[in-house]
User: What shape does this take?
Amino acid sequence: MIEVTEETGLEKRDGMSIFGTDHLTLDGTGVRDSIRVSGRHIRRALAPRRPGHTAQIIADNSRIGAALPWTARHRDLYEIVTHALLWERQRADFV
Assistant: This one.
């Protein structure tokens, strides 16, 4: 989702689809924090919900951290999206 949002913000895509308007959320769509923190106007179209889609997904990486010698370098969503946008911009310069 972050990659599609960033590509749309950088005009590599014409827009993106938001699937589902009947979720039990404030606006009826799924939670999209990656779009909200990007700070850019994202062209989007509403589309029907696809089978299996949920209104919200929350990830917890504590099990992988306990099982492997790995820790997340970036934990803050704003920081993650900022780094993803910088990476997309750099990638655009080489494509």
